[in-house]
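Please check what follows.
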Amino acid sequence: MRRSKALVLLGIVAQNGIVTAGLPRGVGPEFVKFYEIKDTFTCIGHPSITIPASKVNDNSCDCPDGTDEPGTAACALLDHLSPRQPLPSSLSGTTNTTNALPGFWCANKGHIGAYVPFMYVNDGVCDYDICCDGSEEYGNKGGVKCENKCAEIGKEWKRVEKERRDNLERANKRRRTMVKESREFRRRVEAKIVSLTEEIKELEVKRDALKAKYDEVERQERFKVVKNEGPGKLGVLAGLAKTRVNELRDNLSKVMSERHQLRTKVQELESILSAFKEEYNPNFNDEGVKKAVRAWEDYAARLATETQEQLNEVEIQESMKEDSEESGINWKEFEEDEATDTDILYSFEAYLPGPVREFLHSRINLLRIWLIENGILADTHSGRSESRLVKAAREAYETVANEVNSKNRALEEQQRDLERDYGTDDIFRYLKGKCITTEAGEYEYELCWLDKTSQKSKKGGGKTTMGNFDRFDFDESDEEERHDGKGLGRGKRMVLRYENGQGCWNGPNRKTDVWLACAETEELWRVSELEKCVYKMEVGTPAVCEEVVEPGHVKDEL
């Protein structure tokens, strides 16, 4: 296609009749004023040079800037990228200069006017994609005559353009919905941050109060002269033994139950086989049946001669009874509290009146605390056990403290999410966490927005990470427009950079550039590997519709 060489302009000026029949062939609407009917012509880029009007379009390049040949290919070699070739009329003496005219103007009445590169003029090829009226082949070179097809091409173009605009409107409509949803998601995050902040303040007050209470209870309980609430070593051992005995008793009960069930099934099967032996017809020539009967006879013979050791059901039932003072083990004998050296104190307090006992106990406790804190009396607290009061106070404090830590982590996560870049209008907040897939060749590719890209073989196996989201970026695209609209086209496009994927065999870590173009829905169009372990995904999404075009950037609409 030669469209990449053409500068396309709207044909409104041409359709309004500004380009008149008196103009030289190939003059565009913006250059009309330079070609008014005169006896002489002044080179546009070099006003000091004037030539006779008869030399315009005479197929000879007379002006250094090529403006005297708007309708021929005589000055087609004038280009700043052209190799140096002798050209006397050029100021530089070579073709390595710039043509002041963009090309040969095709009015394309009924469609859109366009400039065709001069080298396409009278080359024997009908360039209908640029010049639908065929006017660039006026010389009929090689007998080629290009008909005017602007009516049918213009009609089809209008249909496609209408469809494109309708698709764009639907895409913009969906983008507005996405923006609305994204703002709601952001509002929820902000509300969550406010809620968590208030909850944390309340919990911190509660935590500090419980910590103070825990410290006080621990201090009071630590210095008390009290009898040990926990069991001694013998009591612990007795408790473990009791638990083990109960487990064994339960297992024995299950085994006996299964034994009774199996015995019933065996008896039932024996009766079936016995009846089968008595009732089968020995004259029936079936080796399988005869073999089964002989096996049963052997089994019955062995059963009659075997002596089975019978279990004593009475002894088993006796073993399965619960332990008590009359049978089994009397566990209460092992549960008596062991005597301690503080028993005498409690025995003495037992003879005192209640108020006196409490007063005496509190004073002794305060005295003990004072003596220990001042280093006069040794602290015999081992720290191996804690009272029920200390345990309850500690657990209450730790529960609230853990809740405060959990809320703080949730708050930090929400704050990071709020500060994260989600693009213009926070639009990608709506897409976060969603994934789209496509199949290409032997692989299935997946794009998860702001997360990762991956590939998976259709033959099986796990996913291979092709990159993790790193940042937003912009880059220039220079691709032909696709008729189905599923392409990047030309212009500035948003690119999502996914870096540091899984490492390639003997190569770098994989990475993916996700190029985005405006589309009605999220769709992964194509995946290509630009170089080893470097991938390119072309994706359509409403998120990049209605982008703000920076100053100096011209968006190619066609």
